[in-house]
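Take one record.
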Amino acid sequence: MSECSGKQHLIKLFSYTTRYFWLLIIPLVRSLYSLTLSVDALRTWLKGTWLDLLVLAIILSFAWLRWEVVSFHFNKERIVVKKGVIVTTEDTVFYDEISTLSIKQNLFYRLLGAYKVYIATNAGIFDKADITLTMKKSDADRFYAFVKNSRIKSLNYSISPNKPRLVLFSLVASSTLSGAAVAVAFVLETSQMFDREVEAKIILDTLGEFANRLAFIISPIAAGVSTVIIAGWLISFITNIFYFWDYILTKCSDSIYVKSGLIAKNRHIISLSKVNYIDIKQNFVAKLLKISSLHCHCSGYGATGRKELSVVMPIATSKEINGTLDEVFPEYPKPKIDLHSDIKSYRGFYFLPIVMGLLPLAGYFIVNWFLPDWRSVYLTALIIAEIPAVWLMICRTMSLFTTGVGMTDGHLVMRYSRFYTFHTVIAPKDKITKLVIRQTVFQHFSGTCTLIVYTASDSKSSHLIYGLRLARILQFLEKSGFDLYFSENP
């Protein structure tokens, strides 16, 4: 079959409804369930709920209309999506223009035989896919096969990290912040289906019980904060395990194919020619263990979910990273730094962690002045609040000696840290859109500056390399063939 036409999966109807749909239907179903089997009881129920039923019918009618006016058609070369009631729009995307095709299926969609399909090109904006569809499994599988068959079919590299390493990657990569983001996303999604009071009671009861148990060992405020930290990290850990389980990367001469997922199944096709840069990431623990994760920035990849990473290789040693670069990105050179940050710029590296450390300390003295009886509680809170600042101080110390830039075979290499993550970015020169040299008053006295590199992206993507000697970076960029305009008084 060379052509396929269809409509989205019926589950899409629910995303077209409002959150008030569930606030209406749940009490209606509950009250209907409690009715006695009699005509009079049904008549009484209808008199009391006719307005709710009318509103429910209007919501469903608009949802059905929105679902009905969206259709798609695809063949071996392109996909066409039509939508609109009064004004009809038609979006056409040829397969050779797709930067990333992502096909995702969570557990709920898996039970219903549905897939979420994201089609991204370099024409997209704000880190969103150009086209998002909810397809039936048969349509999604056929569309994936068409796109895959339109690419070069000779496969020359395939790799799948072993399971113990994936567990280690999840341990190292998991963080409280990302776990909290997943939890918030889950709460937001749940709020569309359940009453807020019920939702809040479930969450607060669960966290409250855990905090009460901890309170027998440590102070209540420490128990509360510890609950959030442990729960956030655990959510992040489980999410990483589930997402990257059965991870397989396959590469041909023009594309990368990625499959992963234990329960939620994910498939991606990434066009190599549309990759803007690659990024070797580490946190402090991974840096000590000399392991990394390899990411690539391509429009649409890593941007189709609240918790998704643009990973090419989830976990690898330095030797394996070099081997993956040779096989998957052979045109990218090995990272080499020519110009390091100046040791005189240490004040700028430590500015943020010092501020993060002083703010809780100032708060402690202020509160202690007014409420001295609560000193032990605030002291516990102060110690917990200082942990992120101390950890950032350690990371910035390492960053002071590793930050820098280099130029090899037409690729700019940037090594820097952003909060607790260390980045080694390799970007082709033709993917760099703008260079900015920024010098603060304090940097003026030390003769240093900050290099800001903007790369091609569907969103604002910049890389800050702090503490470089101004004279040396100007010479380096001129030697590397970048056109510069520099003014001391811009």
